Amino acid sequence: MTKNINNQVMNFPTPSNLSYLWNMGSILGMCMIVQIITGIFLSFHYKNDINMAFMSINHIMRDVNSGWMIRHLHANGASLLFMFMYIHIMRGIYFKSFKYMYIWLTGMTILIIMMMISFLGYILPWGQMSFWAATVITNLITAVPLIGKSLTIWIWGNFSVAESTLTRFFSLHFLMPFMMLFLIILHISSLHYYSSSNPLGMSKNHDKIPFFPFFMIKDLMGFMLTLFLFLILILMFPYIFSDSENFIQANSLITPIHIQPEWYFLFAYAILRSIPNKLGGVIALLMSIMIMIFLPFLNNNKTINSNMNMYKKLLTWMFISTFFMLTMLGMLPAEEPFIKMSLLFTLSYFIMIIFLPL
């Protein structure tokens, strides 16, 4: 066993020209560990009851030893997790890492499950934005023909978002990360089987060096910078990613002026709002994520790497700009001219992501 660990970690053959963009995988692993550990400690004090959930968060922040730190680590850790995940995916698209189909498919499955876990966790503080965001997003399921309304009621466990919804969301939010660990192991195993891609797109068996000490030092540097970012967030800007409406206890009789999800879902939210038809918006929302699964099947192996192709490089940066614009538009009210702008950037998003591998 020691020999296997040594071969898979210390002496693992790695392309010699990997940049710091290839650190994102190990940083994501560290962030995931932080999320699981802090989540377990938070679950000791959280009450999944609509009359006590909001106050239990206050109790964690005020009365539990270091509870404020654990809560800020968990809340801001989710934002960092998605930030590094998006960088990880964009690096994969830019350098055509999706040509390793099994690695890409397991990675995209992890992203989808991570989004589900995050959405389930967003309702748990039982603040105004948590309650209404959960109500709006789960109501989208009613757009499914024939079974939509029944499926929504089944998910709620009631005729609206209520205590039964909070209970099942909490249970799934706690259990699903442990299920996701299995996919992470598959993802890492497939990476070690097929080997890493590299910036120049060279043959995977060409010019390799051991992982230790050359790339372990890079990973340690990435860990230290990430921990420093954690410290800045929890000590100086703990609420930078929070919505002020969520500091008010959920009230089904008062609707917030502007309902929006967490920042890492805003690009998909902008795509959803840009389509006037409800079912069409839901399909566009799902396809904004699912379309990435098909990138390996659209891959044109005759094209050269982005670093050698000016037009592909330009298209990639245009796609990144489109993603940022959709994120910004998702924060703005659902009115003109923002809806038309969202529709324009939605079309650009899908056109670019289809043409990138081609």
UniProtKB/TrEMBL annotation:
<feature type="binding site">
    <location>
        <position position="192"/>
    </location>
    <ligand>
        <name>a ubiquinone</name>
    </ligand>
</feature>
<feature type="transmembrane region" description="Helical">
    <location>
        <begin position="101"/>
        <end position="124"/>
    </location>
</feature>
<keyword id="KW-0349">Heme</keyword>
<dbReference type="InterPro" id="IPR030689">
    <property type="entry name" value="Cytochrome_b"/>
</dbReference>
<feature type="transmembrane region" description="Helical">
    <location>
        <begin position="220"/>
        <end position="241"/>
    </location>
</feature>
<feature type="binding site" description="axial binding residue">
    <location>
        <position position="187"/>
    </location>
    <ligand>
        <name>heme b b566</name>
    </ligand>
</feature>
<keyword id="KW-0813">Transport</keyword>
<dbReference type="GO" id="GO:0045275">
    <property type="term" value="C:respiratory chain complex III"/>
</dbReference>
<dbReference type="InterPro" id="IPR036150">
    <property type="entry name" value="Cyt_b/b6_C_sf"/>
</dbReference>
<comment type="similarity">
    <text>Belongs to the cytochrome b family.</text>
</comment>
<keyword id="KW-0830">Ubiquinone</keyword>
<dbReference type="GO" id="GO:0008121">
    <property type="term" value="F:quinol-cytochrome-c reductase activity"/>
</dbReference>
<dbReference type="GO" id="GO:0006122">
    <property type="term" value="P:mitochondrial electron transport, ubiquinol to cytochrome c"/>
</dbReference>
<feature type="transmembrane region" description="Helical">
    <location>
        <begin position="278"/>
        <end position="298"/>
    </location>
</feature>
<dbReference type="InterPro" id="IPR027387">
    <property type="entry name" value="Cytb/b6-like_sf"/>
</dbReference>
<feature type="transmembrane region" description="Helical">
    <location>
        <begin position="314"/>
        <end position="332"/>
    </location>
</feature>
<keyword id="KW-0999">Mitochondrion inner membrane</keyword>
<feature type="binding site" description="axial binding residue">
    <location>
        <position position="88"/>
    </location>
    <ligand>
        <name>heme b b566</name>
    </ligand>
</feature>
<dbReference type="InterPro" id="IPR016174">
    <property type="entry name" value="Di-haem_cyt_TM"/>
</dbReference>
<feature type="transmembrane region" description="Helical">
    <location>
        <begin position="20"/>
        <end position="46"/>
    </location>
</feature>
<feature type="binding site" description="axial binding residue">
    <location>
        <position position="74"/>
    </location>
    <ligand>
        <name>heme b b562</name>
    </ligand>
</feature>
<feature type="binding site" description="axial binding residue">
    <location>
        <position position="173"/>
    </location>
    <ligand>
        <name>heme b b562</name>
    </ligand>
</feature>
<dbReference type="Pfam" id="PF00032">
    <property type="entry name" value="Cytochrom_B_C"/>
</dbReference>
<dbReference type="InterPro" id="IPR005797">
    <property type="entry name" value="Cyt_b/b6_N"/>
</dbReference>
<dbReference type="GO" id="GO:0016491">
    <property type="term" value="F:oxidoreductase activity"/>
</dbReference>
<feature type="domain" description="Cytochrome b/b6 N-terminal region profile">
    <location>
        <begin position="1"/>
        <end position="200"/>
    </location>
</feature>
<feature type="transmembrane region" description="Helical">
    <location>
        <begin position="130"/>
        <end position="157"/>
    </location>
</feature>
<keyword id="KW-0479">Metal-binding</keyword>
<dbReference type="GO" id="GO:0046872">
    <property type="term" value="F:metal ion binding"/>
</dbReference>
<comment type="function">
    <text>Component of the ubiquinol-cytochrome c reductase complex (complex III or cytochrome b-c1 complex) that is part of the mitochondrial respiratory chain. The b-c1 complex mediates electron transfer from ubiquinol to cytochrome c. Contributes to the generation of a proton gradient across the mitochondrial membrane that is then used for ATP synthesis.</text>
</comment>
<dbReference type="InterPro" id="IPR048259">
    <property type="entry name" value="Cytochrome_b_N_euk/bac"/>
</dbReference>
<feature type="transmembrane region" description="Helical">
    <location>
        <begin position="169"/>
        <end position="194"/>
    </location>
</feature>
<protein>
    <recommendedName>
        <fullName>Cytochrome b</fullName>
    </recommendedName>
</protein>
<keyword id="KW-0472">Membrane</keyword>
<dbReference type="GO" id="GO:0005743">
    <property type="term" value="C:mitochondrial inner membrane"/>
</dbReference>
<feature type="transmembrane region" description="Helical">
    <location>
        <begin position="66"/>
        <end position="89"/>
    </location>
</feature>
<keyword id="KW-1133">Transmembrane helix</keyword>
<dbReference type="InterPro" id="IPR005798">
    <property type="entry name" value="Cyt_b/b6_C"/>
</dbReference>
<keyword id="KW-0812">Transmembrane</keyword>
<keyword id="KW-0496">Mitochondrion</keyword>
<keyword id="KW-0249">Electron transport</keyword>
<keyword id="KW-0679">Respiratory chain</keyword>
